Amino acid sequence: RRKVSEAGHRFNPNVGPNRGNYIMGSETEFNKRVAAAGHKAWFSNSARVNHFIRPHQLTEEFCLGRAFRGGRGTCLETGDLTHFPTLFGVPRWLYTKKMRHALQIALATLRGDREAKFKARFHYHHTRGFLHQAHELKNAASQKQ
């Protein structure tokens, strides 16, 4: 609605498509922020959107990059991470989760299960993105001090 933009709300330029390894989730971040400011959002089943999917976007490597960018966005959605026990300044459970996914990749590889291997790789890269963003947030907080 117009009143949302008139109240000064804009999409965060640091989230969403841009060059390089961007953070996914610009619409989610925006909607959560304006909802916290008292505005309402809704979903419409009647809205129709076309997405153009290019051949390179169907490759495994592109999907894994998307998982990484999605992990960065999920980290931002999670909010305050300071109440978790940390290792190198970020929640230590992230390292455990990353190692668990690495083990799942290895086991799926040994079994020759391509689908399970891809799923484990996807989750591994998502966790990598989350961990990367957690480090970015920690470094930004350190520089402010």
* Large-scale geometry: globular
Strand order of the largest sheet: 1-2
The biggest beta sheet reads: 2 strands, antiparallel
- Strand count: 2
What proportion of the residues is helical, as a percent range? 55-70%
Report low-confidence residues grouped into runs of 5 or more: none
What is the helix tally? 5
The sequence of SSEs as H and E is HHHEEHH
Question: What's this model, at a glance?
Answer:
This protein has 145 residues and is an all-alpha fold. The protein is built from 5 helices and 2 strands; from the N terminus they run αααββαα.
How does this model look, in words?
It is a single chain. With 145 residues, the chain is mostly helical. It is 59% helix and 3% strand. The protein is built from five helices and two strands. A hairpin with a 2-residue loop joins strand 1 (86-87) and strand 2 (90-91). It starts with a helix and ends with a helix. 17% of the residues are buried.
